[in-house]
Specification:
The chain has 491 residues and is of the alpha/beta class. Strands 2-1-3-4-5-6 form a 6-stranded mixed beta sheet, sandwiched between helices. A 5-stranded mixed beta sheet has the order 9-8-7-11-14. Helix 6 packs antiparallel against helix 7. The protein contains 12 helices and 18 strands. Helix 1 links the parallel strand 1 and strand 2. 41% of the residues lie in helices and 19% in strands. The protein binds dinuclear copper ion. The site of dinuclear copper ion (CUA) has 9 residues, from loops.
Length: 491
């Protein structure tokens, strides 16, 4: 940095064998930089140039780019060898205003406009003793800057108004298109409130980004014939603090709100209807342990309206996830036994039929892992429960019910269709080709073995390790018999 009251003159060396080049450059520099620039010499060949670099110690060398007599490549090669801070401008009069600047320290090339700007900036930053010209320039620059500021203020106001309008429109659209299905549980209200708050923030963020982008594309687009570069922006602390703090506050706000909502949807109600929900690849089973008499098992989830239900979720194999979009709440069903049973509380508020979907990718049949959810009046629910406890006297009908409630039909079809496992249609009494090349007759003993020990004999067209070996614990011997009777009936 030069001393405050003595601005250092820029020492310029001109390298050109054409007298006119040097002459023109001298007057140009005087015009643009006034007293700040001193042309310390003019050289016309490489040897002279290298000599003058030592003797005259210029800050800047301006090289005639078009001068054949001056080997500019060699000059550049020699130029970068030195230690002193120095820059060289390759100036071409033939290609218009274009000029390239090389900095010896960084070896970076720059455009002459950038360099002149940097120079002016440095000069304006110091106090000049004969400040007449400088002050006039400063005043002019200042008024230009003020004008620019009021102009950008105007753009900000317009863009701001457009952001507000766009936010209102987008928020209105988000609230009024049906993004969410009907809310059919008491737990849905607080979750939907949270959604509404998020939609509002989404609408604002979307508008903030899109409005400023589209506005800039149209208002600040390049004018025809304009080949200049945009201004160089290095940073804006106020803006950076704003865009860090505001999102942080917003995210924290939603974290607290979300926590309160979670507390609300998981709050325990007195005397709930308990249903054990068991997921397995690829079916759901529902047990009603509170019902009188037998343990009622169903492949459909029946729930009485307006009665709090406590679903105890578990899985026999991998992680599944219980999700009825109309109820909003969702919970994973985990394998691992008692310790991993997870509660989910739902109070259905609207009677009707819904669809339970598995919301955790759980294998080949994941997309088919659906069950009907039927919300009825308490009276209808009670009579359904009663009907379930009087099982049909027919073993085939019982077997069919077992096949659906235990999820067998998620993998085995009864119509010959190929699913994850072999079809049951025509299975009984047939010859089954096995993986080891032998055959087995699908009789009662074979079916029993395949149910209790699925890996014992593997069908050659189906992969091993798919069927769970847990049915011998889940089903009674009677239930397995009924199931075999059902398979026998599928001719
Ligand atoms: Cu079970 Cu996806």
């Amino acid at each position: 940095m030069p001393a405050a009251n003595q601005p250092k003159k820029r020492r310029v060396l001109i390298a050109s064998s054409h007298g006119l080049f040097a002459q023109g450059l001298r007057s140009l520099l005087r015009e643009r930089q006034g007293e700040d620039v001193e042309v310390v010499g003019v050289v016309s060949n490489l040897a002279e140039a290298m000599d003058s670099l030592e003797k005259l110690g210029p800050d800047l060398v301006i090289v005639d780019y078009d001068d054949e007599a001056l080997n500019r490549d060699e000059f550049l090669a020699r130029f970068i060898e030195g230690e002193k801070k120095l820059r060289v401008v390759l100036l071409s009069l033939q290609s218009g205003k274009e000029a390239i600047i090389y900095d010896r320290r960084t070896l970076a090339a720059a455009q002459i406009d950038d360099w002149l700007e940097e120079w002016e900036f440095m000069e304006n930053g110091t106090l000049s003793p004969d400040g007449a010209i400088d002050n006039r320039e400063k005043i002019q620059n200042g008024s230009v800057r003020m004008e620019n500021r009021s102009k950008s203020g105007k753009h900000l106001v317009i863009a701001g108004i457009l952001v507000v309008i766009s936010t209102i429109v987008v928020a209105f659209i988000l609230q009024n298109i049906r993004l969410l299905p009907e809310a059919a549980s008491a737990q849905a209200a607080s979750i939907d409130n949270l959604f509404r708050g998020e939609f509002l923030v989404i609408a604002f963020l979307f508008s903030l980004i899109v409005v400023f982008m589209v506005y800039s594309i149209f208002v600040f687009r390049r004018k025809q014939g304009d080949t200049t570069d945009a201004g160089h922006v290095t940073g804006n602390t106020r803006l950076e603090v704003t865009w860090t703090v505001l999102p942080l506050v917003t995210v924290l706000f939603f974290a607290v709100w979300g926590g309160q909502s979670l507390k609300e949807v998981t709050r325990a109600a007195a005397d709930p209807l308990v249903v054990n929900v068991i997921g397995q690849q690829f079916a759901w089973r529902f047990e009603y342990p509170q019902a009188n008499g037998d343990n009622i098992v169903s492949d459909k989830l029946y729930l009485p309206v307006d009665k709090p239900a406590l679903l105890q979720l578990s899985s026999l194999d991998v992680i599944h996830s219980f999700w009825v979009p109309e109820f909003r709440v969702k919970q994973d069903a985990l394998p691992g036994g008692e310790a991993f049973v997870r509660p989910l509380r739902i109070t259905p508020t609207i009677t009707g039929n819904y669809k339970l979907r598995c919301a955790e990718l759980c294998g080949a049949g994941h997309t088919q892992m659906e069950s009907d959810v039927i919300v009825t009046s308490q009276a209808d629910f009670d009579s359904w429960l009663l009907g379930q406890s009087n099982l049909a006297a027919d073993p085939v009908a019982r077997g069919q019910k077992i096949a659906t409630t235990f999820g067998c039909l998620g993998c085995h079809s009864v119509d010959g269709a190929r699913l994850v496992g072999p079809t049951w249609k025509g299975l009984f009494g047939s010859e089954v080709p096995l993986l080891d090349g032998s055959q087995a007759t699908a009789d009662e003993a074979y079916l029993l073995e395949s149910i209790v020990d699925p890996e014992a004999k593997i069908h050659q067209d189906y992969p091993a390790g798919v069927m769970a070996a847990t049915y011998k614990d889940q089903m009674t011997a009677e239930q397995i018999n009924d199931l075999i009777e059902f398979i026998r009936s599928l001719r």
